[in-house]
Amino acid sequence: LIMSYTRKNKAQGFTLIELLIGLAISLILMGVAVSIFNVQRKSYTLQEQVTEMQQNVRAAMDMMVREIRMTGYDPTDLGFVGIGTNTTTLLQILADLDGNGTTTDTNEDITYRYYNANDATYPRQIKRNTGGGFQPLAEDIDECNFLYYDSNGIATTTASSIRQLRITVTGRTTKADPNLGYSYGTLTSLVTPENQNN
How far apart are CA 190 and CA 147, in angstroms? Predict the structure, then answer.
């Protein structure tokens, strides 16, 4: 008896239709993954800009508050008024930090100035002058103003009567989001210069 064996090849490949369907599903999944990645990237970029804007505003506010607190420091009793020129966008502060009887040394006569969006030269900037000309303190600032109050909390612009200052700084992100526009952040601080004449 002779037996013959026939082998059937059960390994089959994919048909062309199955390959096309698999390819289509892969492309759809790839498109979804790319879309999610783009959304995440935009969100990260926006959050990074918001963080940068907040740090910018906070750093400017911290420096101004620290220096304004020293306004009127007068260890030799010169009797000068610690606040000089004062408007809602310009503030000059004086202090005899080294105790030599003058306020002409570096960082003893400081002026802060806000340049609004309409300023052609320095739009949306706070600049600081310590005697060598105005230098940038903060950029992308949408608003910065100084308000002045006497000892009773009444608004005043008389330098010798000023006992408190309210500083408001509003920053904005460097770039606008195409869908949301600019993001803004505001800090406000009420400062009492401890050395200002009472």
Answer: 9
Whether 164 has a pLDDT exceeding 80, the answer reads yes
Q: What torsion do the CA atoms of 110, 121, 175, 114 make, to the nearest 10 degrees?
A: 30
Per-position DSSP letters for the chain, written without gaps between them: ---------------HHHHHHHHHHHHHHHHHHHHHHHHHHHHHHHHHHHHHHHHHHHHHHHHHHHHHHTTT--TT-----SEEEE-SSEEEEE--TT-SS-S-STTTEEEEEEE-TT-SSSTTEEEEESSS-EEEEEESEEEEEEEEE-TTS-B---GGG--EEEEEEEEE-SS-BTTTB--EEEEEEEE--TTS--
pTM of the model: 0.78
Bridge partners of 188?
168
Task: Answer yes or no: are the C-beta atoms of 128 and 62 closer than 8 Å.
Answer: no
Model confidence pLDDT, tens digit, residues 108-128: 999 999 999 898 889 999 999
- Angstrom distance (rounded) from CA 43 to CA 30: 20
Cα 183 to chain centroid distance, Å, stands at 10
Summarize pLDDT for 26-82 with one digit per residue, the tens: 999 999 999 888 888 888 888 898 999 999 999 999 999 999 999 999 999 888 889
